[in-house]
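Please decode residue identities from the backbone states below.
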């Protein structure tokens, strides 16, 4: 019984201690709530110090000079016999793609056969024309001789011969003259016909020559060569799925044995000597970026490797891309150049860039999330004896994580979240963007 009483007494003492501890905590919480209005609101203080106006951006590596090589404009289906894989380094004039020339070789042989036939036809036409010209010359001489003989026969005095003989000789003169005119007309017509037939044969030869030349050019175009020194990137074969394609679909690259059609882009050649970085600068960070500004570059494809560079150009006007969900803030395109190009950098790889901005001394500053928007103006929630009160501020500088402000004193306690929203449990601890003006 004594042991049981001791256990009950110890349990009672522990219960009284816990009740007393809970009462003290409850009293303390009530006092804190009466002082601050909401003990769950995280706070910070306004500090004074230097502010680095650095800008963080992302982008990709691009080649300032590149060439897209499509399949040649040759009718019908084209089969790839050979294609250099992605990543191949090529020199100007190196063969990148070879396509099956079977159809064009057949067309070339057919055109050459037609060309030879046309040339033989021209030879025959010229020989026939020469023979006809000789025959026409003989016929023409004969007709002229007949006219001359009839004229001599009709030149006799009509009193020396019978009247009917004289009339017959005069009629013979007229008949031989008409015959001569007919022969001259026929000779001229046959000469024109021979020239026309020869011109037609020559036109057939020219047509066959053109077909042969075109077939040869097509055969030459089926061997695609590099227009410059660079790096090969093979395109996706969008005909691999039978012409069916949707966004996000994974397609294989072109390879030997695939079929393609005229005009299809097959490969790209990028000049690695002209590599540059394209990044996008937010509208609020635009004033912190100038040409020549130094940059620290890290490539996602080369972990642990960093590069030094600088801003080459930056757009003067903002660009809005309908397909990119960039929010209400517009963006500016900027180009960076790398001080020392690395052969491992490849076009299309993503990069992270930190642009070193100017260092501003003696600036009142806060974490970015402490500045919020109310009726289109930046405000902060200042701690008072009864809670938090919204106060307007002027944003003078802005970085990725901090802002420089004016309008409040150093050391002022500021809420990092909206106190009212935090009390309701709806604040997501994200600051609305506050427009900033650089001095």
């Amino acid at each position: 019984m004594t042991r049981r009483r001791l256990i009950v007494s110890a349990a009672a003492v522990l219960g009284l201690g816990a009740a007393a501890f809970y009462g003290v905590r409850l009293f303390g919480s009530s006092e804190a709530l009466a002082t601050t209005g909401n003990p769950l609101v995280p706070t910070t203080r306004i500090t004074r110090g230097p502010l680095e106006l650095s800008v963080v951006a992302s982008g990709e590596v691009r080649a300032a000079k590149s060439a897209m090589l499509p399949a040649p404009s040759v009718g019908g289906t084209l089969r790839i016999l050979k294609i250099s894989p992605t990543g191949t380094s090529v020199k100007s004039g190196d063969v990148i793609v070879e396509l099956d020339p079977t159809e064009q070789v057949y067309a070339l042989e057919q055109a050459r056969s037609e060309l030879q036939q046309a040339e033989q036809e021209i030879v025959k036409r010229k020989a026939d024309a020469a023979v006809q010209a000789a025959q026409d010359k003989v016929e023409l001489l004969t007709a002229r001789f007949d006219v001359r003989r009839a004229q001599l026969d009709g030149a006799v005095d009509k009193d020396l011969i019978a009247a009917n003989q004289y009339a017959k000789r005069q009629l013979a003169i007229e008949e031989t003259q008409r015959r001569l005119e007919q022969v001259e007309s026929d000779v001229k017509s046959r000469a024109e016909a021979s020239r026309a037939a020869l011109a037609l044969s020559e036109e057939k030869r020219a047509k066959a020559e053109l077909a042969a030349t075109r077939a040869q050019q097509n055969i030459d175009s089926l061997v695609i060569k590099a227009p410059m020194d660079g790096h090969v990137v093979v395109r996706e074969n969008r005909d691999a799925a039978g012409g069916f394609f949707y966004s996000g679909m994974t397609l294989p690259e072109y390879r030997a044995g695939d079929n393609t059609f005229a005009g299809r882009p097959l490969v790209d050649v990028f000049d690695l000597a002209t590599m540059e970085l394209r990044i996008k600068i937010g509208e609020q960070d635009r004033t912190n970026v100038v040409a020549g500004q130094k940059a620290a570059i890290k490539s996602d494809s080369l972990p642990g490797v960093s590069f030094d560079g600088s801003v080459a150009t930056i757009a003067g006007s903002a660009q809005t891309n309908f397909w990119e969900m960039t929010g209400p803030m517009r963006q500016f395109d900027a180009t960076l150049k790398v001080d020392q190009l690395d052969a491992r950098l490849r076009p299309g790889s993503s990069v992270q860039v930190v642009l070193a901005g100017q260092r501003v001394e003696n600036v009142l500053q806060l974490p970015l999330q402490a500045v919020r928007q109310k009726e289109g103006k930046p405000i902060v929630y200042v701690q008072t004896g009864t809670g938090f009160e919204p106060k307007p501020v002027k944003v003078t500088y802005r970085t990725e994580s901090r802002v420089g402000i004016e309008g409040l004193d150093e050391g002022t306690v500021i809420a990092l979240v909206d106190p009212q929203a935090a009390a309701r449990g709806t604040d997501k601890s994200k600051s609305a963007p506050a427009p900033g003006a650089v001095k």
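Observation: The longest strand covers residues 55-63.
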